[in-house]
Amino acid sequence: MMEAAKVLDAKGLACPMPVVKTKKTIEEIDSGDILEVHATDKGAKSDLAAWTKSGGHELVDEAEEEGVLKFWIKKA
Amino acid sequence: MSQSIATKELALRIVNQEETFILDVRNTDDFDDWKIEGESVEIINEPYFNLIDEVDALAGRINKNQEVIVVCARGNSSKMAAETMEEAGFTNVYDLEGGMQAWSQHLEPVKIADLSEGGSLYQFVRLGKGCLSYMAVSEQEAAVIDANRMTDVYERFAQEKGVTIKHTIDTHLHADHISGSRQLAENTGGSYHLPPKDAGEVTFDYKPLEEDHDITVGNTTIKVHPLYSPGHTIGSTSLIIDQQYLLTGDILFLKSIGRPDLAGKADDWVGDLRETLYSRYKKLSDELIVLPAHYSSVEELGEDGSVQAKLGDLYQRNAGLQAEDEQSFRDMVTENLPPQPNEHETIRQTNMGKINPEVEEQREMETGPNRCAVNA
């Protein structure tokens, strides 16, 4: 598994908070680094993917483990 | 603090064709798949994540003084976006309470007619999903046909009219939405009627909906007369109410016809569908008013917000009724099948009583358009 520069715990948060927090947190890492996001809101799946693309970042991987959605986003 | 608008209010505006400007802030894929529609509705999309701290993305697209209704999936993101817009100087912004989820669940009752021996027939329009259900009321009794999951709406309506729901009827085993008929019958002590040919795998008791077994509502008897009309499903059964109204279920819509493939049997059922549309229905009076279980575009809503047409007129103008022979009918049906509705198999399983998802899950399963018609 790739090394994340930072892990954001957005579990239990409803839309729009997972994306809002992701947007803020990604500003804290360097370009090319990876932000790992954990969320439980089902809407986060398509919204995070869409946000990543619109921001020019790259969704390197995603997984679902025991009801937790995990995303690895490489900062542009 | 931005103001909210309730789904009921938005529904009335759409039915009354009032000019309405909507900003949908869901992601663009979700927006493209399914959105609020209306003759008088102008709608644009800008995802909420582009409106978090600033609203530059809206520059030139919305006038700061114009009225805007902001819509999202469940009502939180729209509130956030509406507030950001107000901070940026927009003066007339509302957010839709509960978002598309609430919109998908809203039912708007419209009176179709007073019936010959007293009593009335109502159509419940589910604007967010294009589902139509019905309530026939006579004396102190009511029958509900093709009820949606939101059983409280029918119960409240019955209470307002001072009637008891004695019968709930499904014209077929639904695949696009979760039926509320069984639950509604349970809540009101009524009987649930379902075509036996669609009920082979169900896990509950029901009354068979069959020809020659009329259902009576009230003492003055509105006769609900079942007419076997397979094709969308093998059990699909139409209802003739008061010898004037033909409830076609998902067999015949105003602009299109039902699809035969949602239970995986397109090839087998396309012949039944043709027989029903080109022979069984043909023998009925042209004067019957067709009342379908779905519509696919807002253009089908009449001035009063109802969806209805004369059977004779549909034989003139419905694209699905113009095939010259069996082969061209088969080609038209099989070449024009839209993608299958979201979760149609789990919805069928739920309607058969095989699985019992939580309400939250049921809402998710029903997200999206109904897609029960052939797009001929």
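qc> Chain A has a mean pLDDT of 94.
qc> done
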